[in-house]
């Protein structure tokens, strides 16, 4: 009986320790993609309140928010593709921009001011007419990069991040939404690490059963 009780206590202690280990690993390994958003977007040439609209440069502010409290993020070069959306044709590519690779500390925010001149495929006259008629004028911003997470002194493998959002323009040539526009569409990474932890827990459990039984 004493041997049986000792075995039960040993088994309970092992399971309890295994649970704490799994919890620690899950908290340590889980990661969240950075939040990418367009904070401002302005096309002076579409501002109907201006008499002279000869400035064809488009300006926008991209915000990258690392919400991980204890994990830094290494960004590869960030590729930004800007397109113009209409109701009658597929989105028209108008420019491509690159933000060079950089490191972002845990729980940090980064703001990247960008500007470009649309190529010849963008019809300023048609866009101005649409704005004047209060019709939808929408630009599409797509972001593609790869990120690695820094966990203490260890770096994860690269994870592809592809997100995008529509930006609707108002009468003054700026985005209609006052708040930032979140770029979405990227996969969540939490499930990937949860599966890894689950596999590790199952492996330890099997080793325990083989050892004691």
Give your account of this protein's structure.
It is a single chain. With 213 residues, the protein is α+β, with helices and mostly antiparallel strands. The protein is 28% helix and 37% strand. The strands form two sheets. Strands 3, 4, 5, 6, 8, 9 and 10 form a seven-stranded antiparallel beta sheet that branches. Helix 1 packs antiparallel against helix 3. It is elongated, with a radius of gyration of 25 Å. The two termini are 18 Å apart. 21% of the residues are buried. Mean pLDDT is 83; it is low at 22-26 and 189-199. One of its GO terms (biological process) is defense response to other organism. InterPro entries: NDR1-like. This is Protein NDR1.
Briefly summarize what is shown.
The chain crosses the membrane at residues 12-29, 189-212. Helices cover 28% and strands 37% of the residues. It is of the alpha+beta class and 213 residues long.
Topology:
Layout: H1 2-29, E1 35-42, E2 58-65, E3 71-75, E4 78-85, E5 92-99, E6 102-104, E7 109-116, H2 124-132, E8 137-151, E9 154-155, E10 159-169, E11 181-183, H3 190-212
Antiparallel strand pairs: 1-2, 1-11, 2-7, 3-6, 3-8, 4-5, 4-8, 8-9, 8-10
Key terms:
213 residues; alpha+beta; Immunoglobulin-like; 2 domains; 7-stranded antiparallel sheet; 4-stranded antiparallel sheet; 3 helices; 11 strands; 28% helix; 37% strand; elongated; transmembrane; Protein NDR1; NDR1-like; transmembrane helix
